[in-house]
Specification:
Low-confidence stretches: none
Distance between the termini: 19 Å
Order of helices and strands: EHEHEEH
Mean pLDDT: 88
Number of helices: 3
Largest sheet: 2 strands, parallel
Strand content: 15-25%
Radius of gyration: 14 Å
Length: about 80
């Protein structure tokens, strides 16, 4: 799992991640190169990429309460319960 942040405020972003206990590696894409490559149209955008580098699932945006649906969709793609 990896996070790519589109802001250029590294300190504020790291404080945000720390406040929520996120421990995943985070990169920064203030210039938007990764966003353009993956066709990001909303934030957050979540991708599941397989071992061959293919995007096998994506989800745009987030609202509180989406967690159960996201968990179900990801589990279905991964073939797990």
């Amino acid at each position: 799992m990896l996070a790519i942040d589109v802001s250029n405020d590294v300190v504020r972003t790291r404080e945000f991640y720390g406040g929520y206990g996120f421990t995943l590696p985070a990169g920064f894409d203030a210039a938007g190169a990764v966003s353009r490559q993956f066709g990001v149209v909303a934030t957050p955008t979540n991708y599941l990429v397989d071992a061959n580098g293919r995007v096998v699932w994506r989800h745009y945006g987030f609202r509180p309460g989406d967690e159960a649906q996201l968990r179900e969709e990801i589990s279905a793609v991964l073939g797990s319960d």
